[in-house]
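Why run this: before we spend reagent on co-expression, it is cheaper to look at a predicted model of the complex and decide which construct boundaries make sense. The entries below are exactly what would go into the expression plan.
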Amino acid sequence: MKGLLIISGLGILAMLAEIFKFKKLLLPIVLLGIVSAFTLNFLEWETSLNISYFDNMISFDKLAIAFSGIILLTAFFWFILANNYFDKSSSLVDNFALVLFALVGALMLTAFKNMTTLFLGIEIMSIPLYVLAASKKEDLKSNEAGFKYLIMGSFASGFLLFGISLIYGACGTFDIMKMRIFIEQNATQLPVFFYVGVVFILIAMLFKVSAAPFHFWAPDVYEGSPTLITALMSTIVKTAVFAAILRLFSIGFGSISEIWTSALALVIAASLIIANFSAAMQSNVKRMLAFSSISHAGFMLMVILANIRTNISLDAIIYYSLAYSVGSISAFGILYNVTRKGNEDIGSFNGLSKNNPLMALCMTLAMFSLAGIPITAGFFAKYFVFITMIGTPYKWLIILAIISSAVGAYYYLKVVIAMYFNKSENDAPLIIENSNKFVIIFTSILTLLIGIVPSLVSEIFMF
Amino acid sequence: MFFTKSALSRNLALTFSVFEFIIALVAFFLFTHNPNLATLYFNHTWVQSLGINFSVGINGLSLLLILLTTFLVPLIILSTFNSLQELGSNFYGLILLMQMALVGVFSANDGFLFYVFWELALIPIYFICLLWGGENRAKITFKFFIYTLFGSLFMLVGLIYLYNHSGINGLKSWAIQDLYQAGRGLNLDQQGVVFWLIFIAFAIKMPIFPFHTWQPNTYVNAPSQGTMLLAGIMLKMGTFGVIKWLLPIVPLATEKWGSMAITLSVIGIIYASCIAIAQKDFKRLIAYSSIAHVGLISAGILSANQQGVQGAIMQMLAHGVNVVGLFFIADILLRHTGTNEINKLGGIRNINGSFAVLFLIILLGSIALPLTNGFVGEFLLINGVYQYSDIAASFAGLTVILGAVYMLRSYQQIMLGENRDSNFSFGVLASSEKLTLVIICIVVIGLGVYPKPLNDIAEQAAKDILINIK
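The model came back. Tokens follow.
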């Protein structure tokens, strides 16, 4: 909870930075704030269980702390990457403030206890992102991305709100625990519009994580937005919404899982197939990563589908989110540096192994991790998903997941081949700022580290 | 290893790999002295909550394959000494990384660890082929990587399935003995599913008939050292896997589905031999001959009797040595004459007699003449397959004849006769080339005349495996 307050304070502070002229100091302050939020968050680990705030609207239990830990860690890396990003095109201060507010929304999503907090969290997170997506003001594509995101996002919010109100009509409460008790007591006599509400909420949430068939906005928005904003959307936003889905569906609607699991299974299947086969066709790396993030959404949803609330499945989703976030930050960081001067076509990666061998190695690691090849973190992430899925009736999804993993390896390797095999037209070495280098190397090491010693992360719920 | 200069790294790599061979020899003597010695096993917890242990150990089977690996890797490094290509230090780093993964595969006693090493072996070879391969390499290595990854993922699911059925009191475990137990606790249908899930991975790696399409192109396009690694050692991962990780786990299913898998293997033998006869490119010819040989090995293993399994183990060793020798010869031919086309070569014996003799010895080993290393294994294998089914054996036995046809014919065309071209030159062999070939020839003849020490271990290893089945 203290973490949430600190981040909110930072957001306000960031807006003041312009007026009181401490722009240069802003980044250190923000980083310090994130680190302290991160630590304070984990200090609440033991005492977290029974404390809730604002009349049981929000409560940071262990699950919330773990998820917000991942979000804050990703944000920390992100801010270092973004250090020099906003200098020219638009104001650093405004953008930092917007990102911080989006972060507040994301943290709320990990910890909500009440449907209104859920809605507030999603809106607080989304509205800054609509603006950020369009933050390259002169770029037509960026404007298009922002506009598309706004329209589609608002549409999804409409669904969410409608679903919430239908469920309120049936249960008479916004509180998730009370709702759960109500559902368990009246399992046989729930009205039809209650089920409609559940499905509406599911649709809205799937919209936000861009699972197929609600994914149509994602490739365009991801491609059009500035690269670092795309990184933000595909890591922090995804993680936060997953935390929300996990909480809402396996706690709130856990006892009526039979009505949403079969729909979810179809969504996962569609996500895996559509995303992977579309990604394999792309020559634009950013667009490829957009489709790949849809496919990873499919994988993460599998854990939710398994709906076994064991420690292992919680660990599985935490581990997956972390592995995916770290790998993506690394990949987007390199993509951002490589494509700074050129376009985002895969050709920009040609000859990177000569121009900057270290970055080529890091990118290879990131690609291997996203493809799920041992000994990177992505492999264990996939492995945990398989482990949780094998005990469920949806074993056919595993076969599908295997096929899509093989297809996934195909398009991730395309980047590796471009770096090591194709010749570049210009041999100028690629120079990368130290701050960015730090983030990329650090995330690469982290990818390897939790790949070799997964118990660092995967056993936090064992205790 | 990745940071040193090229010549230095080459020598360093050689030293390290010879050193590892010596360690393997020490292990060999320790093992023959006392097979249950505690120093040959190592166990450390890796991921406790999931029952994953870093557990490695050497039994007879793994010992032989580790010997093979550690013996071949120095030779492969030695074979680079006259390479035309600029091989950076990365190349040697990758080879040693590969060796690490291979030794890991052969010694893992934990299902999960086995899988991790199995996949890990893929990465260095992928880069070796990608960075130093022939033209068209990008596309071909791609196919190779995706194909094998696809297979291994099926294996992972099969292993997870076993893991889920393992253990008592809900305490699951990846340890090999627990997986054996879990597998045998399944009924026939479940075993059938697990059998195919795991077998596909091994069949792709070996490769067995319908899954072989990646292999000839990859072998031809990979750099010679890559091909040697692939054919000499990596191929054995598949056959080794069937012996250690398939037969004892699903004995019932092997009995039921084995005949089908043996049929595939036998089809592969005949099919590959026939294609080999028609080949014009020597390297491609060896690639197809390798499919034929491995078909016989897998047929022998799946017949699941003493002779079959023992013969398979012996033949794995012999084939590993011979095929590396043959690919090295192809490499020498290419470097000295600029071509691997059988039609364009001829009369080399007139120019360089000693090379002709060395080539002949290795070739005879490969067609399993008595008193060469190939004979012991092949004889036992056909014997084993015969016990299983005489029809299969009669078809599998054709490999002896067909193998002799394509090998001797290619020898005749390459080495004997007149030079086809008056400008043809071959030159003399460099000392490192000679050394490599001589070492291989010594092994070919030595193990052919006196196979007993290895054969004893293979016999015992086969018995240990088969006890688990009965």
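Residues 306-337 of chain B form the longest helix (32 residues). The interface with chain A takes residues 46-50, 115-116, 119-120, 122-123, 127, 130-131, 137-138, 142, 145-146, 149-150, 153-154, 156-157, 160-161, 163-164 of chain B (CB under 8 Å). Bring this page to Monday's planning discussion.
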